[in-house]
Each structure stands twice: as structure tokens, then as C-alpha cells.
Design a protein that fits this description.
This protein is an alpha+beta fold. The protein has four helices and five strands; from the N terminus they run βααβββαβα. A five-stranded mixed beta sheet has the order 1-2-3-4-5, sandwiched between helices. The chain is globular, with a radius of gyration of 15 Å.
Length: about 150
């Protein structure tokens, strides 16, 4: 695919099929299998203005080539909300062309417009390609994530 301009837009109802394809590739990348009800719930949450979950798509040549999902939430260390960049996926065929960077910059812009105090995310330690980008546009903290699935 030739490198043309990237357009970023909020995901909308008509984007479902394109989104689903990238979402399934994202899950496959992380070797995750989710019940279809979870995928449906995620999609509906992205479109529901009463749920603080938002989705953006990166379009190149009228094809959806990247997605990101963010969650806004309150926190105890500030009086304004945080923006958690929960998911970011770029089609393998266009990686290295700036799509991930443009999606993250859109998240920064969105979070700023919502008066958030920060944008944060986690990264898989071995995902060196993505981490190279993250190192260029954000600061790695010294925090380590612990988790107990319930």
C-alpha cells in the first residue's frame, strides 16, 4: 500500500465490519480469545455516548488500517480524569508508516479536549517495535503492573 495521508476519525456504526477485522487481528496478535458477547459489548460501548469508552480509526486510501480505544476515568491523585489508552492496533501492512503515531497523537488531542490530566498505557515488554515509538512520544515510568484476574 502506498504511503498516503492518514485520516483519523471517531469510529461510527458503519465501521463495524472494518473494525471487527482489525479487532480480531489485534486479539490474535496477543493470542487472546474473547467470547463474541465481549466483542459485541466492546463495539456497543464504543458507540454509546453514556459509556466513557471511545474508539478512533485511522483511514488510509478509504481503508481502516488502525484502531485505538480509550477509557476515561476518575482518579485519586487529580481532580480531572485520566485517559487510559487500552487498545492500539495497526494493520501489519502499514506499520512503520506513522499510523500508530497519528493515532496516539489523536488520543492526546482528545484527552486534552476532555480536560484529562494524563494519557497512559501499558505495553508488552517484548513488543520492541511499538515500544520504540512509545519511547519517542511518551515517558516510560518505573511502575510494574500486577494483576489478579477475577
Amino acid at each position: 500500500m502506498k504511503n498516503t495521508s492518514i485520516k483519523i476519525a471517531a469510529l461510527s456504526k458503519g465501521d463495524y465490519g472494518f473494525w471487527l477485522h482489525l479487532w480480531q487481528n489485534y486479539l490474535k496478535f496477543y493470542e487472546i480469545s474473547l467470547p463474541s458477547i465481549t466483542t459485541q459489548n466492546t463495539w456497543h460501548s464504543l458507540l454509546d455516548s453514556n459509556v466513557p469508552i471511545y474508539g478512533f480509526g485511522a483511514w488510509q486510501d478509504d481503508k481502516l488500517v488502525g484502531i485505538t480505544h480509550v477509557v476515561l476515568h476518575p482518579n485519586t491523585w487529580n481532580t480531572t480524569e485520566c485517559c487510559y489508552l487500552e487498545d492500539l492496533y495497526v494493520n501489519e501492512q502499514v506499520r512503520g508508516q506513522g499510523v500508530g503515531r497519528v493515532l496516539i497523537e489523536k488520543v492526546y488531542e482528545f484527552a486534552h479536549s476532555k480536560n484529562c490530566n494524563r494519557v497512559y498505557w501499558t505495553a508488552q515488554e517484548g513488543n520492541t517495535t511499538a515500544r520504540k515509538l512509545y519511547d519517542a512520544i511518551a515517558t516510560q515510568t518505573d511502575m510494574v503492573q500486577y494483576r489478579k484476574n477475577l
